[in-house]
Structures are given as C-alpha cells and as structure tokens.
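I am still learning, so can you show me any protein sequence you like together with the matching structure tokens, please?
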Amino acid sequence: MIDVAKMTSPDIGVAIENGYKTAVFAVGSNEQHGPVLAVSTDTVLGDVLALGVAKQLGNALKYPTINIGCSEHHMMFPGTVTLRKETLHMLLKDYVGSIARHGFKRVIILPSHGGNFGPLSEVVGDLEKENPGIEIIAYTDLIGFVEYLTRASAKYGISAEAAGAHAGESEVSMMMYANPGGVIVDNIPVGKGFVGVFDEAATQLIFEKGIYSLSPIGVLGDPVGASAEHGAEYIDAAVSAMMDYIKTQ
C-alpha cells in the first residue's frame, strides 16, 4: 500500500525506512465544472494522477491532495472556493516542510487544476531554500499538459477544441472512469462551452477576466462523446506526461 491516507503512522515509518523516500501529492480545487461535473473534479483527478505517478515511480508514497486551490477566475459561479496565491504558497511550505521532517529525500507536486500551475511555479524556489537536501519537483507546464490530453483524444476523433481544458470531453471522460458518481450524464447535451483554440492568449484572458469571458456556462470544450473507455486512456496519458517531465528533472 502506498496511499498514506489509508496507512497507519507506524506503517508509513517502516515504508520510509525501507526506501520509500519520495512523496507525491496533487494540488486540486473545489470549483465549478459546468453543468456536467461535480465541483470536486480537480481534487478527484488529482488523487488519481498522484497515485498513478507514485505507482510508476516505485518506492514512492502518495500523500493527500490539497482540495482547494487558486480559483478566482471561477468565482462568478456558485460552489467555487478560492485561495489567494499567498495562502497557497504558505500551505505548500507547511505541507512540504512537514514531509521533509520525516525523512523523505524527494517531493513531487502535481497541479490538477489550471489555476495552480502559476502559483506553484512561483513558490518552488522558496520550497527548495527552506528544505535543503530535499529535491523538489513541481509539474508546471499547463499548455503541455493540455496538449498531451488532446493528442490522446485525437485517437478517438475528438478535436482539441472539443476535448477542451475544463469540463470538456477529456475531463468528463476521466471522471466517468475515475468517479462516475461525479458526472451528471443527463446534462451532457447542454454542456458545450467554448470550443475555440486554447492557447496562451485564451489562458491569459481567463486569468484576467474570468472563465465567463470565454464561456457563460464555465466550460472549455464539449463533453459529447465522452466515455469511461476514453477516460482510462486519458488518465494514462496524463500520468505519462508527468512521468516524462519528472524524468527530465
């Protein structure tokens, strides 16, 4: 067992003594995901991705996902809870500092919500300074992450625009596989949002003016065509993207 949330403290200590020196955790959110997905989506998928990465790494333990992130650009929609980036920075410092005190030598942080990529990249230097001797690896390539998923969706004839970057076909598919109870399938026909190109300009517009500026229903993509079968492959692709990044660090 490698999920510390399901382990006892003595068992975690034994694992560390036996060479499990890498800790992996995700940084998710509690925010709107349009009419089809539950607000817990990014946290649910963060758990799945972090566990997948920990399994592939070997000698790694998966720590709990942070379930609230920087979601100001979604605050026009009910159910969204946001942190200031300074709050997330402090939370990450305390989290990583706690892990470091127990003998880990490497900490891997995986954002599963787009709004966390920037704040995470800003705090990595401080995390390294405050935890000498601990290797800190943070996945911070938001556009690259989306591109990995869209390449996977292309195998099924799903366009990059429909696959989307928020509550589109790819994310709905992943939730169908990982947590079908968080998917309101009956709402899929009305779940189509912005289906333009998701590039740096679109990303900047969302963070400056909110996701409503691109989609009145808070969706980037079109969930029509989503399936659990697709979701299983997308999750594998997302884990592979993160593993490829980790190997280059």
Remarks:
- The radius of gyration is 18 Å.
